[in-house]
């Protein structure tokens, strides 16, 4: 597809005029090359890009990408809500609050443009919160931690590990059915990449590759997509982590 055609496909609206170097580069590089590459689906790239624009607090791009994800039907409202929760874990609740509000606004916008009443907002019950038994949640969290990260679970010797990591992050969020583990990787990797936190970067890049949830080539595409939306300087740490993993296999 041409850059303009791909812009229409991705953003679901006609492309604006290109009058500045920034606008020209956006069209020719971002849509002419990055989104046009075959290594990831458009849906995959949406999850990576949404995490980036939400983390950047970029109001216009957040609106545009949430709207496009819903209008294209690449992501359902349930999947966007799950992505928002997962994003909150790795990038913070204040930023996720903005994303949550945007999802609601754009959900109504899409239906209004179709001349439809919005479908009922998904309802949740206590059963959606997982096991009520606390010991069971910790046990499940320990297992999920190992399955996701490929290393032993941490000890339950601090509120951060016991209540946060084992009970909530891995005892609940990673186990929720709304997104696949691979989808959650596509949200997590951009979030840890922008954090500059060396251990989570190495852990999540390495475990995604080690488990086979993502191939090395897919990881390279994620890093490029991330770099295009959040900066190549930030992308360097993700790239280096992937290269260290590859070197460990030779």
Question: What are the main properties of this structure?
Answer:
250 residues, mainly alpha, 12 helices
Write the layout of secondary structure elements.
Blueprint: H1 3-11, H2 21-34, H3 42-55, H4 59-71, H5 77-91, H6 93-113, H7 134-149, H8 159-169, H9 181-195, H10 198-210, H11 216-230, H12 232-248
Helix pairs in contact: 1-2, 3-4, 3-9, 3-11, 4-6, 5-6, 5-9, 7-8, 9-10, 9-11, 10-12, 11-12
Protein name: Carboxymuconolactone decarboxylase family protein
Pfam families: CMD
InterPro entries: 4CMD/NDH-1_regulator, AhpD-like, CMD-like
Entry summary:
The protein has 250 residues and is an all-alpha fold.
- Uncertain segments are none
**Total number of beta strands:** 0
Estimate the global geometry from the Cα principal axes.
Answer: globular
* Class from secondary-structure proportions: mainly alpha
Q: In percent, how helical is the residue content? A: 55-70%
- How confident is the prediction overall: mean pLDDT? 96
Tally of separate helices: 12
Radius of gyration: 19 Å
Compressed to H and E, one letter per element, the order equals HHHHHHHHHHHH
What is the beta-strand fraction?
under 5%
End-to-end separation? 37 Å
Question: Major sheet: size, sense and barrel closure?
Answer: none
Domain Carboxymuconolactone decarboxylase-like: 22-98, 161-242
InterPro entries: 4CMD/NDH-1_regulator, AhpD-like, CMD-like
GO molecular function: peroxiredoxin activity
Protein name: Carboxymuconolactone decarboxylase family protein
